[in-house]
Amino acid sequence: MPADTPRIGPLPEDQWDDVLKTVVANTGPLNIFTTLDRHPDLFKSWIGFGSMLLMKGTLSGRVRELAILRTAHNRSCAYEWKHHHRIGLDAGLTEVEIAALRLDPGDHSWSDEDRLVIVTADELHERGTVTDATWAALAERHDERELIELVILIGHYHMVAFALNALRVQTEEDH
User: Fold this and answer.
1) Which residues form the signal peptide (predicted)?
2) Dihedral sign, Cα of residue 91, residue 96, residue 97, residue 101
């Protein structure tokens, strides 16, 4: 099977359940949703959790998208990167900043706050935890809820990247 062929393809529209129809009405027929809904019980649980992180979280959109895009880069997840590139722009990131998320953090003039989010994503990716120094710096800027959410957010998008990459979910333009 060629590397660009989905291992599990999107669910045909005539097989969409009410939950998927509702999601698609708000987002369009994104392949992540039409593929993952092949496991409807899991999809129903996941979509609520993911929506909370994406739309109802305590972190600013900028912090959220820095963390997600850096995670997409770290996990080499083209689908996640493509979709969150647009969302990142909507959250106030610039094209230059988004491109810089593919570089070493020292290769761009990030603010201390932005660099800290990137380092947090990198440490979680590389170590599965953050150093005490990183945690202390985070705790100076974020309350307990935000600290929990940031770690969960990065972990969630690692999981999503694993699924997207392993299932070979294609960006919508790839069909």
Assistant:
1) none
2) positive
